[in-house]
Amino acid sequence: MYRTHTCGELRLSDKNKTVTLGGWVQRTRDKGKLIWIDLRDRYGMTQLVAEESVTDTETFAALKKIGREFVVQIQGEVIEREAKNANMATGDIEIKVQSVKILSESELPPFTIEEDSDGGEELRMKYRYLDLRRPNLQRNLILRHKMAQLVRNYLSDKGFLEVETPFLIKSTPEGARDFVVPSRMHEGKFYALPQSPQMFKQLLMVAGYDRYFQITKCFRDEDFRADRQPEFTQIDCEMAFVEQDDILNMFEGLTKHIFKTVKGIEFTEPFQRITYDESMERYGNDRPDLRFGMPITEITQLVKGKDFKVFDEAEYVGALCAETPVEYTRKQLDALTDFVKRPQIGSKGLVYAKYGTDGVIKSSVDKFYSPEDLKRWAEAVSAKPGDLILILSGTKKQTLSALSELRLEMGNQLGLRDKNKFAPLWVVDFPLFEQDAETGKLYAMHHPFTSPKKSELHLLDTNPAAVKADAYDIVLNGSEIGGGSVRIFDRNIQEKMFSLLGFTKEEAEIQFGFLMNAFKFGAPPHAGLAFGFDRWVTIFSGSDSIRDVMAFPKNNAGKDIMLDAPAELHNDQLAELSLAISAKSPKK
Amino acid sequence: MYRTHTCGELRLSDKNKTVTLGGWVQRTRDKGKLIWIDLRDRYGMTQLVAEESVTDTETFAALKKIGREFVVQIQGEVIEREAKNANMATGDIEIKVQSVKILSESELPPFTIEEDSDGGEELRMKYRYLDLRRPNLQRNLILRHKMAQLVRNYLSDKGFLEVETPFLIKSTPEGARDFVVPSRMHEGKFYALPQSPQMFKQLLMVAGYDRYFQITKCFRDEDFRADRQPEFTQIDCEMAFVEQDDILNMFEGLTKHIFKTVKGIEFTEPFQRITYDESMERYGNDRPDLRFGMPITEITQLVKGKDFKVFDEAEYVGALCAETPVEYTRKQLDALTDFVKRPQIGSKGLVYAKYGTDGVIKSSVDKFYSPEDLKRWAEAVSAKPGDLILILSGTKKQTLSALSELRLEMGNQLGLRDKNKFAPLWVVDFPLFEQDAETGKLYAMHHPFTSPKKSELHLLDTNPAAVKADAYDIVLNGSEIGGGSVRIFDRNIQEKMFSLLGFTKEEAEIQFGFLMNAFKFGAPPHAGLAFGFDRWVTIFSGSDSIRDVMAFPKNNAGKDIMLDAPAELHNDQLAELSLAISAKSPKK
Fold first, then answer.
1. A292-413 adopts what CATH topology?
2. Does chain B have fewer CB atoms within 10 Å around its N or its C terminus?
3. Which residues in chain A land under pLDDT 70?
């Protein structure tokens, strides 16, 4: 061992001990005859001190040469500090250095190793091993470790088995794009990396494992969007002989346990459960941020027939009621109008009504609506003096989506989205299918193994797009942190599902044949759920990006800048794999 | 919930309870007016009984239709059995069935779902979900889960952090072949799957994480040999500010903990530590099976000069002394001779000497050696009356290797390799390099980051092939279950190492540049170890193959027979990846 103690553990009770520490130099203060050094490791920081008059000459000279991020081993005596630092766990003591050994020198780092670094993202990604020295990233990865351990222990205690499923599997064109892996031994053939262990966990249920989980990497070759990673981590779970409520209760228990142990927050009441339809109507999306209220109220009928063409012609009119601390100015309202008119949101305009503290309501459409009309609006949205009513109109789908964005923006502006406040809930009763508006083609909303609700089975033949599924998401602060479903375990329903999704019998057989076969030999009822672990840790750590809770993330172009990956292969590697690069567009 | 209890939990104390069970039908015994059914789940087996005279007609008819592996839900009353079965945890009770629901029918399985199945390996691999129902595989996967949990909790308690490292990395031609992953977004470029997280764990040490572990999948595209898998699981560990002894002590502690909790075996003494050189001399290999003695004794000098040409011309002569319960027959000795003459072993012949219980030693080379000569042989190998001395000769390297095989074979024949006996040990002081006998080229014995012993640094320039490394393996019952080394953390030594391994500066820079760069910014001394988790579980489970401790293994040709992977891709998938299949040998 290069040390007797870590840099985080010495206290006044260790006074007079001779200790050896190893760590990185955070900073040095050289006052000529007196030098202070802050020595850092994962566990904390300890102040070292050396005085020229009492320190061995060679040691003192060596200390003078030490720079930021050098790795040193020092021996010295624990002494009481004159000026104690209450902000440091070791702030009562310092180490009077007796000898020093420079284990490893450091060039000047390209950015500061501090809570807030001066390095840009690309630079920090290139030197990720230095970025990872920053205390916030260390806290995040420690939190991630802790959460993973807690999840594993909780589920193990509940009888779940962690079973490793394979990474080299078979490509299924269903869903997102697979990453593939050429096989050298089987010329022209490929493995695929799993997008999730979905089919394997179902097979484990068929195999009688009863309760399965796995914290595992999944892979999706998507066009990168902000905060997507080609590889990400799922807490993947499945149970047999259960119904939807059993799953919700089990994983609500897990979630509460993690909240309590990690955040010290105890949820004594059951999580709110709202249906997909209600979530869409009240919040405009299926992952509502319930840290604040401000629900959407439909006022379509209330506003029609007053010669205001915009509303008269709209399929849907919806309102939000925001409690503003002071009256919104014209400039602020114009900015909100610009916000909803952005192409990503796509509203044509914003109507507002300000409920003055004097009780008078003034709107941007006063010439069409009488004070009594506006009073009725205020009643409809339960507005009170001081509130701001915001109204959007258009097609129902677009308007709800725009109201959702506007609601979140108002939440931001009014400081209602506190990172230290947590509002978990379940969204249930998702539709089984999404339907393409133009082609009418049906797509699985969750995946093709999701069970329709028993009560709606008869609709599969007559109106499949209306069928609701035993599918559910767990939502936290506006993010889906997990989702799952009861699975189909009846071969006939599964075949019907494939057929509704447009698979021919042959296609279904090639892609899912082994699962269909498995169902021939006694499949138990089963259901499951997967948490997006990266996102959950991101929210718990208060970070803005999942990149901040991963040790070695890719950038938004899917590149690892530090490794310079992906990279070209040697020609002989390609030859061994029987592969040639063919340009996408013909080049001569 | 489809059940109130599992099939493993009901006892006499539950008598008279009305319960609901779900599970698979193991077997039915239909005696006409009386039916017994054994219902199985992961937790155990419960006997159901129904009597025609007292059972509802419809229920009785349904029970009559039930076959093997049907999934059923039954309700009934717990009653005391007349004929108790002490071999079953639930053997004191049975369930008097009141109602039954067939949840899922089953075709007749293609092989029996029993401890010993009648299915061949290929068939069982194809129907892996049925194979996985067998109690031995269930025990193995439960054991695997338990061991992984214990490892994680032990290491977490010791301050280790589990950090996930990436799967999509960069190919390094060093070592075994990489599996690669074509990038769609970056035409003509590839990611590689990690052969181990080696460089990442070293970077985490540079980043100050201090104690890291991860139970993770690794990938090697090797030509498949018996019991190799293209993806396998490692318990990967690394520590900073430590020396070799710290690592050995830490992971010996882990190993003992797992032995104690899983196997109930307590090792109170430190594990034996033997050097690589000693292991080679005494056991002919670097992973000795110490469940039994029978070490190799060199007798080269003792046997020379008696006109026996074979020994006179041999570089090396070595002997084993086996304690045989009865005298080996001529036929047995001939079989041993055939064994050592097999091409894989390659000895030219076997010399033996039988130490009779009458004190007379008879050898196969009596005409060259006097009774006094043979007496001296017996003394050299500490033989006593009744023992069998086996002697091989030839070049030192080949002969030691052959003696190693012969020793293990004798261990098998004499029943000395009991699966319930465990002999862990450390092999230390491995050579830094392996040298190609013909070309003289040096290869890293562990990997290029392994540190030479400090005391031997000076030999790097003069005689690198003789340099010993701070490298160690942990060996159990003749298998290496883990290995590791102290790492180089000095940039100059690392560069020298790359140069000795024949890398140009440019090659080293392209492949390991980021690690070399990292070492510029303050690298702590560090060292680590990785356990081969599959092998460890295999030994603990008493299985013969790592395939028996993996849920979904590949066969020896790297194929997943159940999935039919690898498989051909759609042409448009290939086109998106800018790839074309090019035949290995030119086809016109």
1. Gyrase A; domain 2 (3.30.1360)
2. C
3. 173-174, 224, 584-588
